[in-house]
C-alpha cells in the first residue's frame, strides 16, 4: 500500500494549489519543500516586485503632483523603510502559504530536498515515500547566461535583488523583458541610475510593437537608459569598485550592480527524473495537455516546470492556478481536461502597464489568420484617462472578419485590470457585439475597450445603405 495518495514536490504557487485541492478532499497528501514555503512568487517574484513598484509609484506621483496644482518637495527615499514595506507585504501574505495552514488542511509537510528513486517512490528527508500519484511543481530558477567575465563580478537575480541593504548607484540590467523593465522603472523612480541591455532588436519582444513604443517612450522619459539590439561582449570589474558591461560595438557601461533578468530555466537538477522514467527536455517535464507525464502515468507536472506538448511552458503565477485546476479534474476526478492558452493573459506591471490577452496581431497572422479586423481606441479619447492626466495609451483588438476576438493588447494605467474582460470574451467565444453593447460605469478606462469593440460596427452603421434606410424609416408615421 502506498504511503501517500498524492506526493507533491514544490510548495510554490502550483504545488500549494494542488495540495489544497487534494488535502481538502480527504486524500493523504505529502507536500515536500526544501526552501521557503510560497516559492518564488511570494518570496522573490510577484509579491516583493509589486510591493517595490508600489513604493516607486508613490515617489513618482509626488514628482508629478505639480501638474495637478499640488506643490511638493522632491521625495526623499528611505531605502530601509522601502525594504520594510516589501518585507511587510511578504509577511502579511505568508500565512496563506504556511506549513501551519497546510497541516491544518490535512497535508503532511516535509521540509527537505526530494528526488525520485523509482517510478512510484520519492526520497526526501532521509526516508523513502511511495505514492499513488505525484505532482512535480519544483518551479524555475533565474537563467544565468554564459557571459564572459561573469565569474569575475558579483551579480544579482530576482532571488537576491530584494536583499540589498542599500540602493544601487547604477543598476545595469541584462534583459528587457517584463522583469527587467519592471525593476528598471522601480529603481529609477527610487533614485537610482538604470541601464537596460537587450540583445534583441527591441524591449518586450513578445509584445505588440505598436504598444511597446509607447512604453519605451514612457521609460525613457523617466530616465531609464535603454540599449536595444546591444550584444554584450563581456563584463569586468571596474576601477571604481563596481563593474562594467562591454558591448560588441566597443562601448563600455560602468555600474555598481548587475541584475540578470534574461529568462528562467526549470528546476530539473537533483530530481533524478530518469529513475522514475520521466521524460524531460531543457524546457521541463514533457506532458500531454492534461499535464500528465507522457512517460510515467503516475506523475503530473505543474507550473513553470511543465512542458505541455504543443503549447510549451508558461511562467506565470496565474498559469499555476490554471494547471492546478486541470490536474484536479484529470488526476483527482478522472475527468477529461485539456490545457488551453487561447485566453491566457500576461501583464508587464510597469507604469503604464502593458497587458496582452490571446494573440497579438503578429501572432494571429503567423497562426494563419490572413483576414483580420484591427480595432483601436486611444486613451486620449477616454474621458477618465484625460481627467486623470494619463491620456497616453491604446486599446488594440485583433478580431476575425466575423467579429470573434482573437487577442487584445492594452497600454495604459491599470491595463491588467481589463485582462479578465478580454479573457472571458476569448475563452467563451463571445462576439464583439457583447462587449460593444456592454453598459459600463462612466467614467472608466474600460470604456476604451468598449469603444474599440464598437469600431467593428461603425462601417456598417454609417454605410450608404444604412443612411438610406434611416432616411426611409424616418418618413414612417
UniProtKB/TrEMBL annotation:
<protein>
    <submittedName>
        <fullName>Dihydrolipoamide dehydrogenase</fullName>
    </submittedName>
</protein>
<feature type="binding site">
    <location>
        <position position="304"/>
    </location>
    <ligand>
        <name>FAD</name>
    </ligand>
</feature>
<keyword id="KW-1133">Transmembrane helix</keyword>
<dbReference type="GO" id="GO:0050660">
    <property type="term" value="F:flavin adenine dinucleotide binding"/>
</dbReference>
<keyword id="KW-0812">Transmembrane</keyword>
<dbReference type="Pfam" id="PF02852">
    <property type="entry name" value="Pyr_redox_dim"/>
</dbReference>
<keyword id="KW-0547">Nucleotide-binding</keyword>
<keyword id="KW-0676">Redox-active center</keyword>
<keyword id="KW-0274">FAD</keyword>
<dbReference type="GO" id="GO:0003955">
    <property type="term" value="F:NAD(P)H dehydrogenase (quinone) activity"/>
</dbReference>
<comment type="similarity">
    <text>Belongs to the class-I pyridine nucleotide-disulfide oxidoreductase family.</text>
</comment>
<feature type="domain" description="FAD/NAD(P)-binding">
    <location>
        <begin position="4"/>
        <end position="310"/>
    </location>
</feature>
<feature type="binding site">
    <location>
        <position position="263"/>
    </location>
    <ligand>
        <name>NAD(+)</name>
    </ligand>
</feature>
<feature type="disulfide bond" description="Redox-active">
    <location>
        <begin position="41"/>
        <end position="46"/>
    </location>
</feature>
<dbReference type="InterPro" id="IPR023753">
    <property type="entry name" value="FAD/NAD-binding_dom"/>
</dbReference>
<dbReference type="InterPro" id="IPR036188">
    <property type="entry name" value="FAD/NAD-bd_sf"/>
</dbReference>
<feature type="binding site">
    <location>
        <position position="198"/>
    </location>
    <ligand>
        <name>NAD(+)</name>
    </ligand>
</feature>
<dbReference type="GO" id="GO:0016668">
    <property type="term" value="F:oxidoreductase activity, acting on a sulfur group of donors, NAD(P) as acceptor"/>
</dbReference>
<dbReference type="Pfam" id="PF07992">
    <property type="entry name" value="Pyr_redox_2"/>
</dbReference>
<dbReference type="InterPro" id="IPR012999">
    <property type="entry name" value="Pyr_OxRdtase_I_AS"/>
</dbReference>
<dbReference type="InterPro" id="IPR016156">
    <property type="entry name" value="FAD/NAD-linked_Rdtase_dimer_sf"/>
</dbReference>
<feature type="binding site">
    <location>
        <position position="50"/>
    </location>
    <ligand>
        <name>FAD</name>
    </ligand>
</feature>
<keyword id="KW-0520">NAD</keyword>
<keyword id="KW-0560">Oxidoreductase</keyword>
<dbReference type="InterPro" id="IPR001100">
    <property type="entry name" value="Pyr_nuc-diS_OxRdtase"/>
</dbReference>
<keyword id="KW-0285">Flavoprotein</keyword>
<dbReference type="InterPro" id="IPR004099">
    <property type="entry name" value="Pyr_nucl-diS_OxRdtase_dimer"/>
</dbReference>
<feature type="transmembrane region" description="Helical">
    <location>
        <begin position="6"/>
        <end position="27"/>
    </location>
</feature>
<feature type="binding site">
    <location>
        <begin position="175"/>
        <end position="182"/>
    </location>
    <ligand>
        <name>NAD(+)</name>
    </ligand>
</feature>
<keyword id="KW-0521">NADP</keyword>
<keyword id="KW-1015">Disulfide bond</keyword>
<keyword id="KW-0472">Membrane</keyword>
<feature type="domain" description="Pyridine nucleotide-disulphide oxidoreductase dimerisation">
    <location>
        <begin position="345"/>
        <end position="452"/>
    </location>
</feature>
